[in-house]
Amino acid sequence: GEDVEQSLFLSVREGDSSVINCTYTDSSSTYLYWYKQEPGAGLQLLTYIFSNMDMKQDQRLTVLLNKKDKHLSLRIADTQTGDSAIYFCAESNGSQGNLIFGKGTKLSVKP
Amino acid sequence: DVKVTQSSRYLVKRTGEKVFLECVQDMDHENMFWYRQDPGLGLRLIYFSYDVKMKEKGDIPEGYSVSREKKERFSLILESASTNQTSMYLCASSLLGQGSTQYFGPGTRLTVL
After folding, report:
1. Measured between alpha carbons, how far is A52 from B38 in angstroms, rounded to an integer?
2. What is the DSSP letter of A8?
3. Residues of chain B found within 8 Å of residue A1, distances taken between Cβ atoms
4. With an 8 Å Cβ cutoff, is B104 touching chain A?
5. Where is average pLDDT lowest: A39-43, A61-65, A101-105?
6. Mean pLDDT, to the nearest integer, of A76-84?
7. What is the dihedral of CA A98, A106, A47, B30, to 10 degrees?
């Protein structure tokens, strides 16, 4: 069945780059998403990439997609303490709009 | 801006009580979803609805039911709350169709004593 895998924890120093990785299994996924969840809050859409793209850049965020390996990554440049959160990778699944989420990667940014 | 609201941020109930969690979206979205989020397990889909009065089971529907009488409102019902239903409940909505972005509410943290 469909599955989305991500590592559970990542710790970086303020000012460094963070790279959060994700693998997925459904090769027919049209869109892949990154959501951010701050403590005690719901999920906030961070960015998404269409499956026919390799890369998408949005200010400090860079999404890389390797469709052959079914690997997605999110790079955050110049990571700040405000970037500390849980980051979820998700793939679209099915014609009705369901998403399959990974378990989330908790990013800790040390000053 | 899309707005998804949930009736309560925090809720404390007793075992055996009937619990209603309400979700409202203001963007005329066809799809609405209920997830629960537990540490180490990520988000798990309980139920979703793609139209008024339509519902589909997700991965973990046992112990829950839902109601969608109006397009903007999707209710999650715990008929008889149990302690293993203590969790964070997240509602989301999206347009119909593959690849539609889901927009989330702030979540309801439910504690069942």
Report:
1. 33
2. S
3. none
4. yes
5. A39-43
6. 96
7. 30
Amino acid at B100: S
Per-residue model confidence as pLDDT tens digits over A26-40: 777 778 999 999 988
Tokens read off for B81: 């709350």
Q: Tell me the C-alpha distance between B35 and B48, whole Å.
A: 9
| Other beta carbons less than 10 A from residue A102's beta carbon | 26
- What pLDDT score was predicted for residue A1? 54
Instruction: Give contacts of A50 with chain B, Cβ < 8 Å.
Output: 99
Per the rule left: phi > 0, alpha: psi between -120 and 50, beta: everything else, A28 is: alpha
Q: Which amino acid is at B58?
A: G
Is the pLDDT at B25 greater than 70? The verdict is yes
CA distance A38 to A84: 7
